[in-house]
């Protein structure tokens, strides 16, 4: 066919209705996979990470649920009944043995709930103390990471987004806090805050949590956010050069809006992963401080303080050390492996 | 050494000095913010006696004056003043005494964990995915996840109490074995993993393949080419390792009753011996900061491939 310069030159072959076979190409075989779904799929395939996730879930759920129906409480000294002399037969019970009054009840045909792990030196049911200690340790780890996450995110994103002099000054502050020996500062601050806070929080809601845990949170808020801030700043620095940020700026979006709506969502996977890895380190720190006697306030147990208490009766009751030790190692190991799995699944770039 | 390296070292040096100053300042003001002075808990103190005590230790002067004196004494004479609870002893003497034991403990733990860690890591890398590699990896993962105080207590329960082979405490000879093992386990496990991964990285490099192709013998490749280059990440761990050993010694010395500086620190916190708390914090912090500085500088100097920021 000759080409005529002023004609539309329609090729009629292109307007033939599609055959059934051709239509089939366009039918969506399955819904398109999102980034999140891909990540979850990779995570489930990773056996180690999946098993550690299950372990963590089981431990967390039992720490939440068991205290609800368990007949003993973590602070009741079973041998102490008002109006009667202290019954020392309840102290230091071995697993599945009973105190004197309980034995009488059993002899009378009544049912008594067993002390699965026995009792401690003050006659408190040890099983529920371990469960409660796990709950305290997990809660401290979780909230400490949330605090670190929030502060680090705000600080890091502002520093990264503003750049220039603001960034330099903000990062020098981070450098200094980063080079402080954290554990020594933690011990110093925790021991001082403990003494300072006790009169301040008296009579408020915070008293129930105890001055030690609050000082622990303050210490985390003061010292531990720096590596999170560094990480997020690095992410934001590279993200803010993207075209969509420029276009947002061109349409008049403010800095805070851009950070919230564009930058943070784009580095959310990195943030979640490092937050997940932050939890075991917080649990570690809490147990360490509890072991030195700077952790939770008595009679509230934590896994670290339980291990520390167990040292006194180590030769007669070694299981009292082994049980909290096993739980804490399981939690830390599980969270670490799960965090690694998360990183592999959601951020292949980070996998070094 | 070019001017850029010198500039970097100077910058890091300044930062280190500044950080130590921050530590001194924070420690000073934090300790003075505690309600109730150090003599409140004392038995049988009348207000007059208390005032006399405070005058003797200079606690009646304004805070900034006290701070100035303290800073001057620390910087010029390394003098942290007298201990409040151990009468007649200077803080520096107590620290010195504790340091002798702790340094012995720390140095042996550090050296043995480097040696054992590098060897195990190299073995694991060379026998990758074999049984021995798997065993090493599982064990190190377990050790890395176990807090040192739990490790120490378990070792104490097993070897000292159950089996009775080793003494549970002591500052010399056999008594130091358990504390050293406790302190060394975590760094050993960490160095093993570090060496393994960097060794695997190096073994995949072109120059190793070239050496193989040239017919260089296996051991020579490992000791002459691979090991040297894979030790650089281990070098960077020196600073953190020291920090770990210092903080680890706090609990380890507590568990095994070793009369070192870590025990002195914990005891001073419990006894509210302010000058001792401040002195130990500052000395240990300075130690860690200086070690980190040396590590960073060494790292940049040893590996010319690393660009300075």
Beta-strand content of chain A: under 5%
Q: How many E strands of chain A?
A: 0
Into which percent range does the helicity of residues of chain A fall?
A: 55-70%
CATH superfamily of the domain at 92-272 in chain B: MetI-like
- General shape of chain B: flat
Highest-level CATH class of the domain at 92-272 in chain B: Mainly Alpha
- CATH-level-2 architecture of the domain at 92-272 in chain B: Orthogonal Bundle
Main beta sheet strand tally, sense and closure of chain A: none
The global form of chain A is elongated
SS summary, helix count of chain A: 14
Nearest-integer average pLDDT of chain A: 82
Biggest sheet details of chain B: none
Q: For the terminal residues of chain A, how far apart are their CA atoms?
A: 61 Å
Instruction: Please count the beta strands of chain B (DSSP E, at least 2 residues each).
Output: 0
Percentage of residues assigned to helices of chain B: over 70%
